[in-house]
Amino acid sequence: MTSSPTPGLTRFNALDDSEATAELHEVCASSAWGSKLLAQRPFTSTETLFSANEAAMAELTAEDLGEAMGGHAPIGRPKPGDPTSAREQRGMAGASEELKTELLELNLAYQEKFGHVFLICATGATGAFMRDAVKVRIENSPEQERETARGELVKINRIRLTRLVESVEGE
């Protein structure tokens, strides 16, 4: 069963290319990903948009993934003035200073090993869950971790795309 376009999806489909590109960049910093989605407009439903997200993410090169990950703040340090970053990392708000310090140290070790921020779909996750995840994932090979991060980006993009198509005026 396919749903019809939401008012927000209709609005997104009607944007000129530069406006749509800017909105897609807020979802994912990869220009290749944004170009792939832009080329598929108009979307007939949120399901087709989500499918396009998954397909575009699957096609990204390691360099494209690096660009996508570069748009994300480290866990525990949301970008100042960025409501999306703050909303997604809300689970860290009540974390103890000890947990925040431990996560910062783990983030730095992870970044040193893999060359990019630790990426996890943080929406709804607690600080302890994210700490435990980085402890497990730091043991991955670079190839395993790249694919794990790709999967996390799919989830993050889906949440952000949902907000985009639920918005009538854009945010």
Q: What do you see in this structure?
A:
The protein has 171 residues and is mainly α. 65% of the residues lie in helices and 0% in strands. The protein contains nine helices and no strands. Helix 3 crosses helix 4 and helix 5 (62-70) packs across helix 9 (142-166). It is globular. The two termini are 29 Å apart.
Q: What layout of secondary structure does this protein have?
A:
Layout: H1 7-14, H2 17-27, H3 31-39, H4 46-59, H5 62-70, H6 83-88, H7 97-114, H8 127-137, H9 142-166
Helix pairs in contact: 2-3, 2-9, 3-4, 4-9, 5-9, 7-8
Query: What structural class do the secondary elements suggest?
Result: mainly alpha
Q: Which radius of gyration do the C-alpha atoms yield?
A: 17 Å
- Strand proportion, as a percent range, falls in under 5%
Helix content: 55-70%
**Which runs of at least 5 residues are low in confidence (pLDDT < 50)?**
none
Quote the distance from N terminus to C terminus. 29 Å
For the secondary structure, the number of strands is 0
Average per-residue pLDDT, rounded, comes to: 89
- Name the assembly state: single chain
- Mass-distribution shape: globular
- By DSSP (H or I, 4+ residues per run), the number of helices equals 9
